[in-house]
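Usage

Read records sequentially. Each one opens with the input sequence:
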Amino acid sequence: MFYDHQQIEKKWQKYWEDNQTYKTSNNTDKPKFYVLDMFPYPSGAGLHVGHPLGYIASDIYARYKRHQGFNVLHPVGYDSFGLPAEQYAIQTGTHPAITTEQNITRYEEQLRKIGFSFDWSREVRTSDASYYKWTQWIFIELFHSWYNKNTDKAESIGTLIKHFEEKGTEGLNANQNDELNFTSEEWKSASEIDKEDILLNYRLAYRAETTVNWCPALGTVLANDEIKDGKSERGGFPVFQKKMMQWSMRISAYSERLLQGLKTLDWPQPLKDSQEYWIGKSQGAQVRFNIDGHDEIVEVFTTRPDTIFGATFMVLAPENPLVETITTAEQKAEVDTYIEETSKKTERDRMSDVKNVSGAFTGSYAINPFSGEKMPIYISDYVLMGYGTGAVMAVPAHDERDHRFAKKFNLEIKKVVETEEDIQEKSFDSKTSVCVNSDFLNGLNYDEAKSLMIDAIEKKGIGHGTTNYRQRDAIFSRQRYWGEPVPIYYKDGMPYTLPTSALPLELPEVEKYLPTEDGDPPLGNSKTFAWDEANQKVVATDLIDDKTIFPLELSTMPGWAGSSWYFLRYMDPNNGEVFANKNLSDYWGQVDLYIGGSEHATGHLLYSRFWNMFMKDRGYINNDEPFQKLINQGMILGMSAFVYRIDGTNQYVSKNLAKDYTTQEIHVDVSLLKGTSDELDTEAFKSWRPDYADAEFILEDGKYITGREVEKMSKSKYNVVNPDDICNEYGADGLRLYEMFLGPLEQSKPWNTQGLSGVYGFLKKFWNLYFNGEVFEVSDEEPTKAEYKVLHTLIKKVVYDIENFSFNTSVSSFMIAVNELQKLKCNKRNILEPLAVIISPYAPHICEELWSLLGNKESIEFERFPILDENYLIEDEIEYPVSVNGKMKFKIALPATLSAKEVEDLVLQNDKMGMLLEGKTPKKIIVVPKKIVNIVI
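and closes with the structure output:
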């Protein structure tokens, strides 16, 4: 019977949509299971075949859990704020909302075509005002919260104000920007502006001057993960370090909890390691050094206080405010030039560049508090203002980077840890030796010396032992248009939140999407973006009088804001009163399975965990962690094609002749190849782009053969394969099976369209099991033991594979089972009905059709997954190979229940054995039960 995949797939996709088959109920006594894919950004290019890999895996798992009787939440939505739509708006004047809507329509069309079992009724978009109303609400909650170190959680700012009213800062243990000291009387007598300024020091969402990655071409601040090699990932524009007043999120308050929480999660170890490194916990001492001839002090954090006697110079971050104060007139020009150069590097570049050594001398000296020696103070880009104190005590004998710096600037290198190595030539960084040249530390090992030195530092009153974290607070404002407006207005220069009744604060219309002529963010172009405090509404900007009508914040939120809590909104997406009903968030709890790319390790996954912990602290949800199990899917790689242009000409030489010329390798679109071969369609190539219209070709055997290479699938490499084309030719079920069949989910693997024919052949074979020629024919006759064995072998394998996410081996098992059933000419209902259920998570369209043809009125989706019966896997008969003197002579089939002695007796009674023995008595007989018989004559 002809397998018409196009007709079958259209029919069932329409059925699922019309019947809302995958709509998830909140009212159920079923156990829950929450399966989620990482939030997709709807780009203009649409999906290529690499994108659905994770979605197919999560969909198989979601369908499997439904078959097991779980109430499955498997939603979809779009992370729809983003720079690409804004850049397109700047170039064309098209509103980002229009571009985004078009992109989402295209995405949804493609996703539906692949047959995903998403609950489309729960779709969310971060750029919808009904969604970002709650992103703004969370921001307001963060603004009105502080982190109490005594209770180790976020609390309402009201409890902090109460503490100030009763005790001032006495006994306060809070995460803060600066350590403040005042009495309750001083607090009570402070002006409202002063009180607001003090509270900003503690709020979890706060405004402060920060060094940021500023991209003038994009007119916005960028996160470290949006920058590559000193340029913006989007557009490749230069990025500079700049100080600006910015909104920040106090994620640093959660560093220890974020670190400890990793131990409770079932995540890939490399991903946990990335977060652990990013958070960067280190234990050591905070030490204050006096500066010769100045009242100022330099405070450093060091993990090696045991080496303080070997500290021979100091290095400050170029951004350190001390630099301006302590730089001498003679050194000012050199220092200013160096600061200017450093501003062109991002923090990430500075951290990763371990080979190049540079710096400038300030002209000032610090005093080593233990040796009493003068230490020259330099600035260098390898010291970061955001980590520790923005200053390091340099111990060149025992730190590789300090050593390189000392060699470059001819600074003293003093050994304080015993080693035979020449520390003038190479640093000795080990903690396994003992202290030398260190006064009272001499002879002590690392742990003893570290402890004693911290004690000495504290007794001198110049510092204390402490724990430090590399992770810095997350910058939260972006100077761009297409993002969530920050619900803040300014009165007397102080930020105040809008009342929650005024949310959402909607994005206003603007005439242009660039910053204003005054350098304000694009929202400054709006004519209606001011806050009327008396009437609590947004009014015209020209009405601002700073008495009752005030300016609104012109920055927008970063791309990660909306994606930091979307998993919670799916639980109750249409609720206008709260972000999610508490009963529903309690029921759905954590995401049980989260699938997505590893590139989000230190961005989205950290921010989501932070916001989730905060929401738990404030009593809105019940779980500390959002994602219990996480899998990083690998990439599907593209097979790129290249032509070889002879330098300085418009001639293109075929691959195997290119070695005879000096050529340039150029990517060409894989669609220009003939069929599935490597041969270029030269006429199509000439029509592809105007600059190739006059191309001339040097052929081999009358053909132009392209070079091929496996690379990341990308539009820029012209190696993208559109899933729509695959679905048309091989079906969505073919695409789903093939992507799983390619290899283990976590690994990257190359795409090869030719491989689809094998999977498509399997689907046709599977389809024809249910037909006799052109007639659907399934028998109610009881299956044989052999047929049951095939079925239950498959059940056992597939259950194991799905629960271990080994989807590729399941597809192989389907092929083996269908081949065996075909050989057995099996058409029994008791085999073919459960077979359709087993295969349906992978190939839902064909299985729905077969299920319907079997006479079932309901969707296959909620049919219970077949239960394994191990009895069918017990062998009735064992075929024993019989070896004589080490050579296999014949095989004998015997009942599986026989003992070794019974097997021995029956083998000796066998006619073939009698002929081999020729009346002799065997010297030795070895029976390995259910395996083999060995006889020595």
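Summary fields computed downstream for this record:
- The radius of gyration is 35 Å.
- The longest strand covers residues 205-215.
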